[in-house]
Specification:
Oligomer: single chain
Strand order of the largest sheet: 3-2-1-4-5
Number of domains: 1
CATH class: Alpha Beta
Structural class: alpha/beta
Largest sheet: 5 strands, parallel
Mean pLDDT: 89
CATH topology: Rossmann fold
Number of strands: 5
Shape: elongated
Distance between the termini: 67 Å
Length: 196
């Protein structure tokens, strides 16, 4: 019998709270699949984190540090990918447990009992699906806070909140994301000040 952990993630940027959830899933399951969004994160009043930059960060700095039983799939809607995975697992007879990890609000919004019955009815009927909420407050950091630290240029605090990767990787993550902010600031300055 096999226990599966599934994590849908945007992670723009990935922080130690995300990493703690990944490590928890890795210790509680035989196999873990992480579905990572590669779309841009654009919100009014916040810096933009590009999916392309995060894909580079994942492949160069984060994937090598993942526990050995964790695999990553990039692109598409992470929530849709979870449902597709649940559908695939429904045809297997060796499933002991399927745990879907995420923030409590995200799990409630995206994985209702009705949706799970519709897309993973066999697993629901067998009673093997479990939603595992993370209390983001217990991690003391959020994606919003990470983006604020980036905007403010608080490198020390930002790097302290990154996953436990080598310092060289933390510096590379900072440099990549900060360079994009500086480029955006210059473009905005030119657009609003010099071009009239």
């Amino acid at each position: 019998m096999t226990e599966w952990g599934i994590l849908p993630m945007s992670g723009k940027p990935v922080h130690r709270g995300h990493w703690a959830l990944i490590e928890r899933a890795a210790t509680e399951n035989d196999k873990v699949v992480l579905f990572v969004s590669t779309s841009d994160r654009k919100r009014k009043g916040e810096i933009t984190i590009s999916g392309e930059d995060m894909n580079a960060i994942w492949t160069q700095h984060l994937v090598p540090a993942l526990p050995s039983n964790v695999t990553v799939t990039f692109g598409g809607s992470p929530v849709r990918k979870v449902y597709e995975m649940l559908d695939k697992l429904s045809s297997r007879s060796d499933i002991d447990a399927v745990r879907v990890y995420g923030g409590a609000e995200d799990l409630t919004a995206n994985f209702s009992d009705a949706s799970l019955r519709k897309y993973a009815g066999k697993l629901m009927k067998a009673g093997v699906i479990e939603l595992v909420p993370a209390n983001e407050r217990m991690f003391g950091i959020s994606g919003t806070a990470m983006r604020e630290l980036l905007s403010k240029g608080d490198m020390r605090r930002f790097m302290a909140e990154l996953p436990p990767v080598p310092s060289k990787s933390k510096c590379a993550i900072w440099d990549l994301l900060r360079s994009r902010i500086d480029e955006a600031c210059i473009r905005e300055f030119v657009r609003t000040t010099l071009i009239r």
